[in-house]
Design a protein that fits this description.
Blueprint lengths: L3 H12 L11 H25 L1 H7 L3 H11 L7 H4 L3 H5 L2 H6 L7 H15 L5 E3 L4 E4 L2 E6 L3 H9 L3 H9 L7 E8 L2 E6 L2 H13 L2 H8 L5 H13 L3 E3 L4 H7 L6
Antiparallel strand pairs: 1-2, 2-6, 3-4, 4-5
Length: about 260
């Protein structure tokens, strides 16, 4: 009698379109797996469509085959459908994708990454980490560096301009880098185009979690009013929560020497 591990191995082989040992899985078992596999694929198809609506609108004609290939190459390690679709952007950037589906535009992987980050943050609990000052930083944020002008593409997808949308479904896009910051605050997710300087400041704050050290470091790069404006902006979008002190007042309260 085959062991549980052997049976699991053959089931994995079946889902990955690899040869199956008939001495472990007979025809009746394979028939049952075929029905089960079809149900799983239908569920993943629907969930992936809902998670990546703009990407789906481009790939709709071949969607079932694409999802079947995705599931075979990126089998989920979780029983949760939410987790089963998170590798879809990686699949769209794979060599397999480029070889098997060369007719599709070049921006799809990064568009999928944008859609996934926006969706995944909705499932993130609001949590603020103390920076050792009057400010706390929101952990519900992510950044995405894109090679393509995603903000312009998304504006077209959201529009009613069917001709422009049709062009996006069939054409590559010239590279024009953008940097995005996603922030979940008060139950809403916002995406903003930011500069590299803002990204560096946010990354340093989040990794160091030491207001005094980071603020002193950035005082050597920015004038006081520039740093004040940056902190006001990050507070406005919900990345930072302030006790009400201005940056200047907070700097003084922390006894940081002004440059």
């Amino acid at each position: 009698m085959p062991s549980l591990r052997e049976i699991q191995t053959e089931i994995n082989n079946y889902f990955r379109h690899k040869p199956v040992d008939k001495s472990i899985l007979d025809d009746e078992a394979i028939l049952d797996l075929t029905v089960y596999h079809s149900l799983v694929l239908n569920s993943i198809e629907e969930f992936t469509e809902n998670a990546y609506p703009w990407v789906y609108s481009v790939l709709e004609k071949q969607w079932p085959k694409i999802i079947e290939d995705y599931v075979a190459l990126y089998p989920s390690k979780s029983a949760l459908f939410y987790k089963s679709v998170e590798a879809f952007p990686e699949f769209l950037a794979s060599e397999f994708w480029k070889t098997q589906y060369p007719e599709y535009p070049n921006y799809l992987s990064e568009l999928a990454s944008y859609e996934w980050l926006e969706l995944s943050l909705y499932n993130h609990h609001d949590e603020f980490f103390d920076l050792g000052s009057s400010y706390k930083i929101n952990s519900a944020h992510r950044m995405l560096a894109s090679r393509f002008p995603l903000s312009a593409l998304i504006e077209i997808f959201r529009s009613d301009d069917e001709d422009a949308i049709q062009d996006l479904r069939s054409s590559n896009v010239e590279e024009d880098a953008e940097l995005f910051l996603f922030v979940r605050h008060n139950g809403q997710v916002r995406s903003l185009v930011i500069t590299q300087g803002v990204a560096d400041f946010v990354s340093e704050l989040y990794s160091e979690r030491d207001w005094e050290r980071v603020c002193a470091n950035w005082q050597t790069r920015l004038r006081d009013e520039e740093l004040e404006a940056l902190l006001e902006y990050l507070t406005e979008i919900g990345l930072l929560v302030s006790s009400g002190l201005t940056c200047d007042e907070d700097l003084k309260s922390q006894k940081i020497k002004k440059v």
